[in-house]
Model the fold of this input.
Amino acid sequence: MNHSEKYLYCKIFDKNSDFVIWMAFPGIYSFSMSSLGFLWMYKTIDTLNGVNIERICSDTKTTRYRISDVKIFGFSFSFDMDFLTIFAMLNKYGVPIKSRDRVGLPLVFAGGPVVSANPEPYKEFFDFFIIGDGEDVNIKVIEICKNNAAKGKDELLKLLSNVEGVYVPHYPQRVKKLTKKLSECIYTPILSENSFFKNTFILEMSRGCANRCGFCLASYLNLPLRCVPYDELIKTIDYGLKHTNKIALLGAQISAHPHFHDVCNYIYNKIKNGENIEMSVSSLRVDAITPDVVKTLVASGQNNSTLAIEAGSERLRRLINKNLNEEQICNAVKICKENGLKGLKFYGMLGLPTENQDDLIAFVGLAKKIKKENKGFDISFGFSSFVPKPHTPFQWCGREDTKLLESKSNYLKKELHKLGIQVHISSIKWDYWQTVLSRGDASLNDFLLEVYRNGGKLGSFKAAASKYKLNTEYFAYENYSLDKKLPWDFIDMSPGRKFLEEENKRLFAT
Done:
């Protein structure tokens, strides 16, 4: 047991059982302890009788159980490049990376946004996948494996293939994405001094986003927008504050919660009554910035916040379904400054469909105006480049050429630096490979293994593509026709492909 950890639930230490699960996080321990989804999944399984579960991270040195004891080995798969760490972890414990090379147990599975969106590039490495919200289906999977322990691997997989939300590549069929009703509040079940966010109690206010930006997987993968009831939120906040003074509100669109302002006022009043509370929030929408929200952030020790504006021009913001005008953005900055924040970081995206030089000039113009109107206020910008994602209206849109994107990147850096504004832009070359994985199919499986074996650097991707004669530019650059069959079409996800086609037409007609 890690002595820096504080359990906020009744942990059963001796279960007198030989059914062992390893739950793996493809990153270091401190990051795993700030991953709410990973920790909550662990907690739901840890509270089951007759099941022993152990957390494994990329930097885990010793384990309580041996791999020969493990019946199920599950991985959280949140980022495209996680496959490199997952392969390394399988290798570390002597588990063959490809499913067909593994005889008997453990069954190896993955869940998370990457494989819920498109598991096909990874189908030869995992015995099954959880598609969508996994809180409840994980329990079903464990019950089936536990109650049928005498059966062979193939028989177990056949049984699992009939569970809603489970995709078994060996028994392919249409799979429905799972969507959980948020009647309870999910929160950090284990606090740790060694967490990336030290001793921070994270709670999920909402899941999904009603704004539906055309490029946004986080929005479409988690539809519909679901909000935790207000009374449940307050009860959970009070519970967290018994154990720590640091809380974080999580959600893709927390400001859309009907009681977001009530929650802010509740915390603000506690602080005014002498409680020492440090509160942080995931990025806010521009049109949700109000004096009471900013005052709460400042009173709880937050000096800076982030605003996602995505594009510099109103034309492009309309096209991506981010309906914000310049006046709203400037007004939000003014409210932040007047109510005590010291600075803001703006998030933007390069290479969105139809983007042209005028859109980049508009970004610089907007930055110049914000800087001029808010002297002494810290302004910075962060950019990533457009990566088309499955199950979004922009899934058919190819990326721009890497050289063109790098030239746009250099232009923005140069012009914003002239204004004295700090800029960080994600690697265009890495975003290219992220697109290949995002829109890839089963032809990528051997390619990915080769990338891993050659060290996982940028050069490894190029060399592996050359070895397997893969046309990666097709996945990255090609604009697909709306009637093209896509690798992830077998996943039944609301609102469905027909809606995405209509939304694509609507956005490009604006």
